[in-house]
Amino acid sequence: MLFHDALNIYTDGSSYNRPRRGGVGMLFIFYDDNGEEVQIERDLQGYKGATNNQMELRAVILALKEVPSIPLSNRVSRIVVITDSRYVTDNFKRAVWNWSKNEWRNQHGAPVANAVQWKDLIKTVRQLGMRVDFRWVKGHAKNAYNRQVDKLAKSSAKGLLQKPIQYTDLRRKKSREITKLGSVVMEGQRMTIRIISCAYEKLQRVFKLRYEVTSPKSKYFQKVDFIFSRVALRTGHIYYVVVNNEPKNPEIVKVIREIVKK
Description:
Nucleotidyltransferase, domain 5; alpha+beta; 13 strands; elongated; 7-stranded mixed sheet; 6-stranded antiparallel sheet
């Protein structure tokens, strides 16, 4: 997939666990004034503690920031970002027209993940002063350009790493359950939870917590899920809390007390 009137930018993000890290890949393709194909790669460092979605977004942002350094021909009238990330292609317009106008919360009132990056992407697009389109391509298929940026992203993740895009305080979970969004239904209940991770969502001014239910009598005992809190709770600590009754926007409404083990 190439567009002859555009600067084609193939991007990809990758992530690995143990330890968690991620990388970005980007490939610029355009046709010069003689109609010959020109390819330019960028070799950039990866990031510590990165998720795949963070890297997919970051790859697009960094690629667009590189555009002013690309010696474009007069044939180029727009930019087309080509990615195998549905997360990027399906949500860009939502970020522009909905999330940014709703204090970076979705239709259910829940904080949007990676809001700082989405805001940066919108700003970067507007600063370019050119039309920017997004196209999805199936990953790891027959598209040679997609495979090329996939290799770049994986190489980036395995090289020298920058500091995390978002700092997350993390502890090991004790439950054998996997983390599953929505596994604990918000019913206004009281329960004891152990905090596994805590990250501050800057634009929404809330903390995103991953937790495991430690109430033995709860039907959600040992379930692992995410919830938001307006106050920071310490990882590795257990709290007795009250939650709301909005399953699509889980939030701690009151911290009754911390459970101190004797």
